[in-house]
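This part of the workshop introduces the protein records we will be handling. A record pairs a protein's sequence with a compact description of its fold. Comparing a sequence with its tokens is the quickest way to learn the format. The record below serves as our worked example for the rest of this section:
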Amino acid sequence: MSKNLFFVGIILAGAGVLSPPLALAAGLAYGLLTVHHYHLDAQRLSKFLLQASVVCLGFGMNLGEVIRVGRSGILYTAVGISFALALGLLLGRLFRVGRIQSFLISAGTAICGGSAIAALGPVTGAGEEAMAVSMGTVFVLNSVALFIFPVIGHALHLSQTQFGLWAALAIHDTSSVVGASAKYGSVALAVGTMVKLARALWIVPVALAVAVAKKSSARVKWPWFIGLFVAAAVMNSYVPWLGPAYPALARLGRLGLAVTLFLIGTGINREMIRKVGARPLIQGVLLWVVVGGVSLWAIVEGWIRLDF
């Protein structure tokens, strides 16, 4: 029965019956209430599908907007990442979280959730338990963000540009940034996606810096899908004879995102939550609340803004 429900969830998400938040909720219900027979397959597929979906979303973006927003986003994300890493390490020490776990949770919050943890884990020499605890912490919080951010945005009457910027700076994973922004509106989706990808680019310099500091020979993984996203935006802007295909590809990206969120949700189970434990979760929650709160305050007060 649980096997059938898994495939039904994928079909409903892929057909557009389930919106991204509903797809994640359905995945969470599946992961928490049933036995997941395809856990590893879902993990591998969700990683590829997220990257492919982001590339497809590029076919709905204008290159000039990508460059303008991305250029501004680089500065904001650099400041935000430095602040989040420093605060996260301080909180980790305060709550006596393991050094590597603390760094991975901080990096996941600061840069790009599970992608940052997956990239930095090998160069820090992280073991399986440290990776699992760090991933579990950011995935749980990532899931919460997809539901509460749009509610907060509407309550504070944030514009679409403000909300997209806030989501990109304060939500861990690209999947939930795009999901929350898409729910808020098309402009929020464009801003959220582009600033989030600017934030994700910091995976590479941070991973290289850690590798040098630790004299690690582990290979740093480059986020290739960001380059393909820009290439898709180039085609949308300068290859008009393929114009009829672009809206269909962008819609395919949104549907792929819903499937991705369902798959991510199925990976969150009671065992994962138990493994995370109280102290890493407290570190992750406090760090996320401060990062989200400070970035929201700065956006509302006009300290952080985009001309979009």
About this structure: DSSP finds 14 helices and no strands in the chain. The mean pLDDT is 84.
